[in-house]
Amino acid sequence: MAYAALVSLAQITDLILNLLKYFISEFAKHRIMSIHDFAVFVLSFLELFPAEANCFEAQITDATNEAEDILEYFMWNHVQSRHKWMSRFTFGISRKKIEFQLEKATGEISSLAGKLMDIKKSLKYEDDRLISDSVATVST
Question: What distance lies between CA 35 and its chain's CA centroid?
Answer without folding.
Answer: 3
